[in-house]
Amino acid sequence: MSEQALIDGCLRNELSAQRELYELYSPKMLAVCHRYAVNREDAEDMLQEGFVKVFLQIRSFEGRGSFEGWIRRIMVHNCINNLKKNKKFQDNLDIIHAHGIPTRTDAIPSIMQAKQIAECIRSLPVGYRTVLNLYAIEGYSHREIAAILDIEESTSRSQYTRAKNLLETLLIQRNILPPHKQKADWLVVTR
């Protein structure tokens, strides 16, 4: 079934179209949710809740941009709202996590497996992880992140810097990133 046929079927509340849409996009969207969740079970809960919102809001998809991108935005906002609702984000915005974190700018080897990096990202405090995901992976600006999370733009910038530094430290501790590399930004996002 084509993407448009799936959308049309979902607009008519056809269970078969909803099921096919879910099966088509759920693996990618689970990966999105897992970047924000502490564990797989939380990610699966976020995914289910996100797809309920997709089906409820499908009439608002105007056909501008990609349908997958539209679904991704719903998933990201759902994950953020879930974190806010459970106060997991605000409880982890403390600067206390940043003390003693050295600043490094080493290069990650190109052979680095995404799974190892994802595990390190998931081990970050939720506030750091959220800003890192929104900025470096989802492509939001610090101004947009500030609006989404109801924080100051400067807080978003500092959380990103601290997340990046802590991630570097974790990668070095787990022998994923060599400690002897010379200056080179490995997690640079240009906007």
Q: Compute the CA-based radius of gyration.
A: 18 Å
Gross CATH architecture of the largest domain: Orthogonal Bundle
- Write the CATH homologous superfamily of the largest domain: Winged helix-like DNA-binding domain superfamily/Winged helix DNA-binding domain
Instruction: Report helical residue fraction.
Output: 55-70%
> How does the major sheet shape up?
none
CATH class of the largest domain: Mainly Alpha
Short description:
The chain is mainly alpha-helical and 191 residues long.
Q: What topology emerges from the helices and strands here?
A:
Elements (H helix, E strand, L loop, with lengths): L2 H9 L3 H22 L3 H18 L9 H19 L28 H9 L3 H12 L4 H8 L3 H21 L18
Question: What descriptors fit this protein?
Answer:
Rna Polymerase Sigma Factor, Chain: A; 2 domains; Arc Repressor Mutant, subunit A; 191 residues; elongated; mainly alpha
